[in-house]
Design the sequence.
C-alpha cells in the first residue's frame, strides 16, 4: 500500500464511523485536514558535496492541546505518510485522554548512509527549521523510526541555542540526563500488556491457558512479550524480520533475546529439539488465542487473512491490519484490539515526560508505571463500554470516542 492509500484509508475509516453515528460530514472533513504541513530542503555537506535532504512536519489538530508525534528518518518518508500518521496520533492521544493533538514528521534519508557527525548536523539543521513552529505549548516532537535519545538531544540543543533558554519540554524521548523520563523504554510494550490484561479480565481469559504469537521482536515486541510471559501467558512463537521461533511449550523471552543478540537474527539461530524455526507467514497462521502484530503496517491483509486462526488480534504496530482484512476478521467474530489503544503507552509516558519537564520535577519509575496503568486501564474501560452499548468493534468504539472528543473541542472553541 502506498502512502497516499494509507492517508485515504485513514480518512475513509473516520468518515465511515462518523456517518454511522450521526457526526456531520462537514465537521469530520474539517477535522481530517491537517492544520498545516511544513516542508523544507535541508542542505548538508556530505563528502565535500552539498546534498539537499527533504523534511516534513504535519501538524494535524491542536484543539485538545499541543501537537504531539514522532520524527522518523527513513528513505520512504513522504508528505502523505506524515499526514496519515499525524491523523492517527490525534486519534491516539484522544483515545488515551491526553491533552495533545496529533503531529508527525520526518526526513527522507537512509540514516545508515550517514556518519555520526553528518547525522548530528542534519538533526540540528532540521530543529532550526522547526524552531518557529514547535515548543512546549505548540508542538512537542519525539523519536520514531530510526531516531532515539541521541537525535532528540541534538535537536533540543539546537532549539535551545536558537531560543536562548532551556526548554526541555519541547522534545520527549530524551536521555534521562536531559530531562527524559524513567519507564519510557518499556512504555509501549507495557501499555499493550495492560490492554491484554484488561481484555482478559472482561472476557475471563486465564493467562496460563492463553497462547500468544508475537510478530516483531524490537523494543515493543520484546517488552510486551516479557511482561505477558511474566504473569503466565504462554508465548509459543516470536519472530523478527528474518523469521520466527516456535515452541508449543512456551518460549523464554530473555533467553530468546540473548540468542538474537548473539546470532543477529532468528534465522541464524541453530536448530534444536527444543524449538522450531518458522516463517513470519507461518507465525501469522498459528492456532493461538492472541496474535500480536508488533512489526509492520499491513501485515494482515486480504491475501493472508483466511489463514488467521487467532481468536484475538492485539495491534502493537501502527496499522497492521488492512480495512479489507479487518472486515473479514470482524465477520468471523475475531476481536481486534486497535493500535490507537494498544500502542498508546509510548505517547502516554511521553506526556508524563512533558509534565515532569514543565514542573521541573522527576518522577520515580514506580510512579510512571502506576500512572501509565491508570490511563491504559481507563482507556480500555471507556472503549469497552462503547463496544457493549453500541455493539460495535473495538476499533470503531475507539474512533467514536476519539472523534467525538476532538470535534466537541473544536465546537467549544468555535472552530466549527
Sequence:
Amino acid at each position: 500500500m502506498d502512502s497516499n492509500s494509507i492517508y485515504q484509508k485513514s480518512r475513509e475509516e473516520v468518515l465511515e464511523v462518523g456517518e454511522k453515528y450521526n457526526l456531520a460530514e462537514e465537521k469530520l472533513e474539517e477535522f481530517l485536514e491537517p492544520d498545516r504541513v511544513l516542508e523544507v530542503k535541508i542542505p548538508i555537506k556530505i563528502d565535500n558535496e552539498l546534498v539537499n535532504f527533504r523534511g516534513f512536519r504535519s501538524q494535524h489538530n491542536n484543539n485538545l492541546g499541543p501537537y504531539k508525534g514522532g520524527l522518523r528518518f527513513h528513505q520512504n518518508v513522504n508528505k502523505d505518510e506524515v499526514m496519515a500518521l499525524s491523523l492517527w496520533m490525534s486519534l491516539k492521544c484522544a483515545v488515551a485522554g491526553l491533552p495533545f493533538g496529533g503531529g508527525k514528521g520526518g526526513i527522507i534519508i537512509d540514516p545508515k548512509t550517514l556518519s555520526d557527525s553528518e547525522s548530528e548536523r542534519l538533526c540540528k539543521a532540521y530543529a532550526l527549521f522547526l524552531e518557529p513552529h514547535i515548543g512546549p505549548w505548540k508542538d512537542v516532537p519525539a523519536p520514531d523510526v530510526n531516531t532515539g535519545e541521541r537525535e532528540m538531544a541534538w535537536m533540543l540543543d539546537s532549539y535551545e541555542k536558537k531560543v536562548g533558554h532551556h526548554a526541555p519540554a519541547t522534545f520527549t524521548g530524551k536521555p534521562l540526563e536531559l530531562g527524559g523520563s524513567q519507564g519510557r523504554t518499556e512504555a509501549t510494550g507495557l501499555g499493550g500488556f495492560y490492554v491484554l490484561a484488561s481484555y482478559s479480565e472482561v472476557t475471563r481469559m486465564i493467562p496460563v491457558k492463553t497462547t500468544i504469537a508475537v510478530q516483531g521482536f524490537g523494543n515493543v515486541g520484546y517488552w510486551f512479550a516479557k511482561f505477558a510471559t511474566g504473569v503466565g501467558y504462554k508465548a509459543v512463537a516470536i519472530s523478527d524480520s528474518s523469521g520466527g521461533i516456535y515452541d508449543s511449550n512456551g518460549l523464554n523471552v530473555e533467553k530468546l533475546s540473548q540468542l538474537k543478540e548473539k546470532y543477529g537474527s532468528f534465522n541464524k539461530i541453530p536448530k534444536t529439539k527444543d524449538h522450531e524455526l518458522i516463517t513470519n507467514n507461518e507465525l501469522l497462521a498459528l492456532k493461538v488465542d492472541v496474535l500480536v502484530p508488533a512489526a509492520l503496517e499491513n501485515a494482515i491483509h486480504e491475501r493472508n487473512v483466511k489463514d488467521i486462526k487467532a481468536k484475538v488480534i492485539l495491534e502493537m504496530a501502527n496499522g497492521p491490519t488492512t480495512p479489507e482484512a479487518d472486515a473479514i476478521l470482524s465477520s468471523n467474530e475475531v476481536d481486534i484490539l486497535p493500535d490507537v489503544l494498544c500502542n498508546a503507552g509510548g505517547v502516554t509516558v511521553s506526556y508524563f515526560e512533558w509534565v515532569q519537564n514543565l514542573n521541573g520535577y522527576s518522577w520515580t519509575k514506580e510512579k510512571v508505571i502506576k500512572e501509565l496503568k491508570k490511563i491504559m486501564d481507563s482507556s480500555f474501560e471507556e472503549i469497552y463500554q462503547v463496544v457493549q452499548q453500541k455493539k460495535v468493534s473495538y476499533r470503531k468504539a475507539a474512533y467514536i470516542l476519539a472523534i467525538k472528543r476532538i470535534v466537541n473541542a473544536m465546537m467549544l472553541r468555535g472552530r466549527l
